Amino acid sequence: MLKIEGLSAGYGETNIITDLNLEIPPGQIAALMGNNGVGKSTLLKTIMGILPAKTGIISFEGENITKAPSDVRAKGGLGYVPQGRDIFPFLTVKENLLIGLEARAVKRAVKKADLPDDIFQLFPALKDLLHRRGGDLSGGQQQQLAIARILITGPRLLILDEPTEGIQPSVCFQIENAIRFIKEQKSISVLLVEQYVDFALRLSDLFYVMEKGSLTYARVADDQSRAEVKNKLKM
């Protein structure tokens, strides 16, 4: 699915990521954890082509995408929900979701029926908010909208940067169930960057821990690795 080999990236002359290797098999959830400022968001931006790779190779479904533009990566199946969500605050929920349809080149009349029912099965609260502006939603509702908008594009790999940040516990639970359902029913892989360690440990098949721009821990999920990650992150 996604394979990263010897990746270095950063800003200007400064490397934030150095010689990083990471792999996500098809249909699995990988958690990328670590303290603030270690390079997690930089890695995601490099995977998406927002930042260029200085060295190394990024492969997606067997194809080298290291130098591919961001839009090509998105059209090829990479779906990215950044930290901060990046919804359109002055557009309604419905309009935000329809942008996801347009990104998938599905262009029809603007009707409620255009929106896939499975999105509302995952996030039922959105169905009653279709005509509310994105900027008027709570943080949890905005996060659900951001994830739903990306899912409508039909990604093969869903990349989530801090999906529980600033979200109340009840909505975190809904997002957790949605991510689990996405993996089990839709065969979508997930790369999850998360500070809420217990959330990440419950969901993930693979654990990666990052420190100072490099991975210092990589293990398949089991009881021992969960304990090791908690100890390593002092949670």
UniProtKB/TrEMBL annotation:
Residues 2-233 form the ABC transporter domain. It holds the Pfam family ABC_tran. Keywords: Amino-acid transport, ATP-binding, Nucleotide-binding, Transport. The keyword ATP-binding applies. PROSITE patterns: ABC_TRANSPORTER_2. InterPro entries: AAA+_ATPase, ABC_transporter-like_ATP-bd, ABC_transptr_urea_ATP-bd_UrtE, BCAA_Transport_ATP-bd_LivF, P-loop_NTPase. One of its GO terms (molecular function) is ATP binding. SMART domains: AAA (SM00382). The keyword Membrane does not apply. Belongs to the ABC transporter superfamily. NCBIfam families: urea_trans_UrtE. This is Urea ABC transporter ATP-binding subunit UrtE. The lineage of its organism: Bacteria, Pseudomonadati, Spirochaetota, Spirochaetia, Spirochaetales. The gene is urtE.
